[in-house]
Design a protein that fits this description.
284 residues, alpha/beta, 6-stranded parallel β-sheet, 3-stranded parallel β-sheet, 14% strand
Length: 284
């Protein structure tokens, strides 16, 4: 067996075409351009690259981006105050705090300073609760992008055994909730999992999101399983690609799989936030 590629670049391009059309209609109707604010703390080269990519995508779909750069010595209190200022700014539709932040920052406190109506990256507790229990909120961007990618390839999830490797609040945990909502049976795995190989071997769908290159061995993959590699460290994914591709039915490449879908989801949720702000009568 040779796995078919889940092409995130191709699918994200289609999503961004829709976002561009929606943005054009929005500007024509409301007479303003949607705005995404990005907050970057410190000088991490990869984070700077990601923020530039998001700004470029904003420009391509007709949105505006407002970048806020903060020194890596900034305190949690000052970062929270900056995000609260953006949350109160009626000209801003969405807010993204680039992850990760320096270790001395209380990242959760910073996330919670984002107004839920502007949480287009889906990182607040409110967004998580709404996503998990009610629907209608903003999904965490990477899990939401993964779901859109699976949908684009008509991959059925109902009744399937899904293993999510990783339990971060912005990736692993919400990923499992979204799969559960589609009637998959979800197992979370992590650094304390006793026998990761055995858990992976029985999975119909594996979402690897641990950030540990080569963690998932190709020989563990059940023939015909779907493999989504959301890990990215040292320019490699969490899954042994060649070995896994020989056994899987579908697999994401790294790069070119999950990453483009994250940005597309972020911008799709930004235009949705802008529409909600206009129809609800306020943007703060």
């Amino acid at each position: 067996m040779s796995a078919a590629i889940l092409d995130g670049r191709q699918v994200s391009d289609r999503i961004l075409e829709t976002v561009a059309a929606d943005t054009s209609r929005f500007v024509e109707r409301f007479g303003r351009v949607p705005v995404l604010a990005t907050v970057l703390v410190g000088d991490d080269p990869a984070s700077h690259t990601y923020v530039r990519m998001k700004a470029n995508r904003c420009q391509k779909v007709g949105m505006s981006s407002r970048r806020v750069d903060l020194d890596d010595a900034v305190t949690t209190d000052k970062l929270v105050a900056q995000i609260e200022e953006l949350s109160d700014d009626p000209t801003i539709d969405g807010i993204l705090l680039q992850h990760p932040v320096p270790q001395h920052i209380d990242e959760r406190a910073a996330f919670e300073a984002i107004a839920p109506s502007k949480d287009v990256d889906g990182v607040t507790r409110t967004s998580f609760a709404t996503m998990a229990f009610a629907g209608g909120g903003f999904n965490s961007a990477t899990p939401g992008g993964i779901m859109a990618l699976l949908d684009a390839y008509d991959i059925s999830l109902s009744g399937k055994q899904a293993v999510v490797i990783g339990r971060s609040s912005i990736l692993g945990m919400p990923m499992g909730m979204l799969l559960l909502a589609r009637d998959a049976t979800v197992t979370y795995c992590h650094s304390k999992t006793a026998d990761l190989a055995a858990e992976v071997a029985r999975a119909d769908l594996i979402v690897a999101a641990a950030g540990r290159p080569g963690l998932v061995r190709g020989e563990w993959i059940k023939p015909g399983a779907v493999v989504v590699d959301a890990g990215y460290a040292d320019n490699r994914g969490d899954v042994e690609f060649d070995e896994a591709a020989a056994r899987a039915s579908f697999i994401t490449p790294v790069p070119g799989g999950v990453g483009p879908m994250t940005i597309a989801t972020l911008l799709a949720q930004t235009i949705e936030a802008a529409r909600r702000h206009e129809t609800s009568g306020g943007r703060s």
